[in-house]
Amino acid sequence: MIVVMKKDAQERDLDRVVSRIRDVGLDVHLSEGVEHTIVGVVGDVRHIRPEDLQVLSGVLRVVRIMHPFKLASREFREETSEIQLNGFSIGGREIPVMAGPCAVENRETLMETARGVRARGAKVLRGGAFKPRTSPYSFQGLGEEGLEFMAEAREETGLLVVTEVLSPGDVELVSSYADILQIGARNMQNYSLLHEVGAVDKPVLLKRGMMASVEEWLMSAEYVLSGGNQRVILCERGIRTFEGYTRNTLDLSAVPLVKGLSHLPVVVDPSHGTGRSDLVPAMARAAVAAGADGLLIEVHPRPEEALSDGPQSLTMEEFEAMMKSLGPIAEAVDRSVAGVDSTA
Ligand code: PEP
Ligand code: MN
Known about the structure:
The protein is built from eleven helices and 16 strands. By secondary structure, the protein is an alpha/beta fold. Helix 3 (107-119) packs parallel to helix 4. It is elongated, with a radius of gyration of 21 Å.
């Protein structure tokens, strides 16, 4: 249940609503919108009747949220949440692209990739230092050394850094280097990890689990939001189906679906979504057309030498061509791509 306060509601009106809710043992979540303050009622709402809140001074309306996710729902927040970063945002009109290698492999390759994607319009450098590999014999990432290289790349290029945090015990360490914390598909329902990132002051990029429904994905976002961290970015990265020609099936219908259900920005990762570099540019364009608020793209200067996910990584030239092709698509849906001049 949410209580939408009137535009001219006073501080004491809000206090009265909050204490009425707390008096029956429920908790509140406040959201200060541009127009209205919204009070989210958290807990078993059978303990309170909407009529009891509706009559209070300053209350515009009381809405029951039928979804199991509350704070993530569109009813809770009408406008899309725009996550402000350094000099750009995710969830606004402009679409930022996050690009970089699957894994941080060594300083030189990372710097080369960072400079390359920066020059081609990327706003965020992606790269895993802690890698969730299917095989224990595969490259597991450089760990903290990888985070140091990412921070160095940020210093030099001005790109922000998104990197995965694999375990609750690493959240503090990864937060001290990263600008955005990535929760990987395999960890989407790692509730102790969600709990931990819910308590930090860093945006969280929450990937959809490869076998997760949209509702399960939004419930995972709810864990982070209810932990107090309001800066959640959802990332569609493909789900498992019977199809064998692609690594996953990129569920682009999830983009407008989730944007209808939730106020959270949605980013698309066509690299993991397809597993094939030849399909990435077309799916990146389709993602923009479907309303994506950002893209996450794997790029490697020499994909054939990559220590992980080479087959789905774009070369620098392919990345450049893809970036240029996004402009007109974005324009057609009244958006623009950060760093790309669509008139060029
Ligand atoms: C990644 O982005 O490198 C990654 C491991 O992605 P996912 O969790 O979607 O498999
Ligand atoms: Mn990868």
